[in-house]
Amino acid sequence: MRVLLTGSTGRLGGAFLSLWAEDNEVDLITPSRQELNLSDQDNVRSFLSQADFDLLINAAAVTGLEQCLDDPDLAQRVNVDAPRVMAEICEDKSARFVHFSTDYVFSGEQSGMKMEADAAGAVNIYGVSKRAGELAVLAANDDAIVARVSWLFGPSSEQRPSHLDHVLDRAVAGEQQHLICDKFSMPTFTHDVVHWVRLLVDAGSSGIYHLCNGGEPESWYSYGQEVCKLAAAMGYVLNEDDLVPVALADVDFFREKRPIHTAMTPARMIQEGIAVPRHWHDAATDYLKMR
Ligand SMILES: NC(=O)c1ccc[n+]([C@@H]2O[C@H](COP(=O)([O-])OP(=O)(O)OC[C@H]3O[C@@H](n4cnc5c(N)ncnc54)[C@H](OP(=O)(O)O)[C@@H]3O)[C@@H](O)[C@H]2O)c1
């Protein structure tokens, strides 16, 4: 299978790169941002029209909430216009398309796990752009998979530490940490996402899927506490008592609004017999062994 992967320098794209580069069944093409710049529709159209692939994985996006707030035009071009062109070209070439989205398409006003069929209603420019990208992709390509993920952890470059890595490194350094305790989502291992994508593609699935691990919704505080407990049980020497809960309303470093209750359940994968995602604790334990 010839796979063209965007965003291979990112947290999620990096997981596809590391796992599929060694896979004999996959011939992986990973254009750099210089070769394929998603902010330039003409470049996207000409590059992809000439490329030869069976599957396009779009793990590239403008992911910073404050970056989207400051530059909504860039968010529109990268998160909406480029995925639309990708979906159109995949339709023309009869290639499969997997596009990534986010739990931030939900308003997060109601507690409870979010299913694929639940109404979206993003509260910030990032979420609005990602929802518009989902709709553009699905309108252009009936066979596309829109995979929503949340709070990703896994191996990544030092410039892109996940919450798990950040909390763990600071706990090992003995630092006191103030973590938000009243905003909730579902931690998810990038390597599990790569595995589920393969299953979905092989099954010929299409439409929106929630790709997340199992468990109860976590706050950044409870997630941090749990990671420290798991790591301590594995022999890490760290300061797990110095996590301090803080309310979202009491922090002043965010300029853009954050949705509160966005934990998702992978309902379709379970109902359709694709996979029953494991608890995020088990996935995090595997990741801690790899660190
Ligand atoms: N991380 C999470 O917890 C999380 C949560 C929910 C949803 N998601 C979704 O998951 C997907 C992957 O997220 P991620 O965390 O892996 O993102 P990330 O670490 O921020 O990486 C983003 C990737 O997109 C590339 N990119 C950005 N602008 C580009 C452009 N104009 N042209 C070409 N490439 C460009 C970046 O390239 P450079 O290295 O050159 O900047 C990088 O490879 C996204 O769709 C995101 O919305 C992630």
What report would you give on this structure?
Helix 1 packs across helix 7. This protein is α/β, with parallel strands linked by helices and 291 residues long. The strands form four sheets. Strands 2-1-3-4-5-10 form a six-stranded parallel sheet, with helices on both faces. It has a two-stranded parallel sheet with strand order 6-9. A two-stranded parallel sheet has the order 7-12. It has a domain of 196 residues: Rossmann fold, CATH 3.40.50.720. Strand 1, helix 1 and strand 2 form a beta-alpha-beta unit. It is built from ten helices and twelve strands. The site of NADP nicotinamide-adenine-dinucleotide phosphate has 26 residues, from helix 1 and strand 4.
What is the compact description of this entry?
It contains 10 helices and 12 strands. The protein is α/β, with parallel strands linked by helices and 291 residues long.
Give me the secondary-structure topology.
Elements: E1 2-6, H1 11-20, E2 27-29, H2 41-50, E3 55-58, H3 65-70, H4 72-93, E4 96-102, H5 125-140, E5 145-149, E6 152-153, H6 163-172, E7 177-180, E8 184-185, E9 188-189, H7 190-203, E10 207-210, E11 218-219, H8 220-233, E12 243-246, H9 267-271, H10 280-290
Parallel strand pairs: 1-2, 1-3, 3-4, 4-5, 5-10, 6-9, 7-12
Antiparallel strand pairs: 8-11
Helix pairs in contact: 1-7, 2-4, 4-5, 6-8, 8-10
Bound molecules: NADP nicotinamide-adenine-dinucleotide phosphate (NAP).
NADP nicotinamide-adenine-dinucleotide phosphate binds at residues 6-7, 9-13, 33, 37-39, 59-63, 78, 100, 102-103, 130, 149-152, 160.
